Amino acid sequence: MGIEVNVVRVFTDENGKHGNPLGIVDASLVPESERQALAAELDYSETIFVDLPAVGDARARVRIFTPTRELPFAGHPTVGVGWWLNRQGVPVTSLDAPAGVVAVRRSGELTWVRAQADWAPEFAIYPLDSTEDVLAAHSSDYPDGGNYLWAWQDELESSIRTRMFGPGLGITEDEATGAAAIRITDHLRQSLLITQGRGSVLRTTYSTDGWLEVGGLVEFDRSRTV
Question: For residue 41, what pLDDT is reported?
């Protein structure tokens, strides 16, 4: 029997374009020992396995995998599955991830998740002089680990332009990286409007209590069977 994978694009722009593809899989269909192999086969930057909640249950357990390893927390998978569960008629207010309990909320069309910065993978953060420098960068110049390049797009508007090269995570370039958005928000100590990759849009909120949020728009892409 095939395994159904629901694919959504997370952090699209206001026209539903761009966004980072995410594979969503019912965890009951795949033994834990086989999840890493399936994530590698799907080859999305992340695949999330979710224990589907019962109707009326506002909490769900999740596990997140890149093509090469499991992550304790990641932004675009948690935002994406929070949106998808709401679309399925089982909205949740929290996700149990290995890093901790991720609060989920919706505000208009936006889906938000809340996390601690140290839940996210480490990224080498590179401030560049201009958005043109960000756009001209090549992944071959950043061969190790996770590398987050950024420049002010409009400092008065707290808007930045970014890219993420992540060969250490099995990702040549990530279209939209929620965990890195959490890290840069903590680094700059302010809420941000982030444009990443080809034009994906991420929003963050900063709080001095250590809890940060990342949110954005999500679009359903397709279902596939593997």
Answer: 96
For tokens 């080859």, the residue is: 43
- The per-residue pLDDT for range 2-40, each reduced to its tens digit, is 899 999 999 999 999 999 999 999 999 999 999 999 999
Strands 4-12 and 20-26 turn out to be antiparallel
CA dihedral 170, 163, 179, 73 (to 10 degrees): -10
Q: Is the pLDDT of residue 156 over 60?
A: yes
Distance from C-alpha of 200 to C-alpha of 180, rounded to nearest angstrom: 14
Indicate the DSSP class of residue 84: H
Task: Find the distance separating the first CA and the last CA of the chain, reported in whole Å.
Answer: 9
Q: Which two tokens stand for residue 200?
A: 């994906």
Gap between the Cα atoms of 173 and 175, Å rounded: 6
- Cα–Cα distance measured from residue 223 to residue 96, given in angstroms and rounded to the nearest whole number: 24
Q: Which domains does the chain have, with CATH numbers?
A: 4-114+215-225 (3.10.310.10), 119-209 (3.10.310.10)
Q: Which amino acid is at 113?
A: V
**Measured in whole angstroms, how far is the alpha carbon of residue 50 from the centre of its chain?**
15
Listed residue (22, 40, 38, 21) closest to 30, CA to CA: 38
The phi and psi torsions of 184 (rounded to 5 degrees) equal -70, -30
**Model confidence at 1, in pLDDT bands (50, 70, 90)?**
low
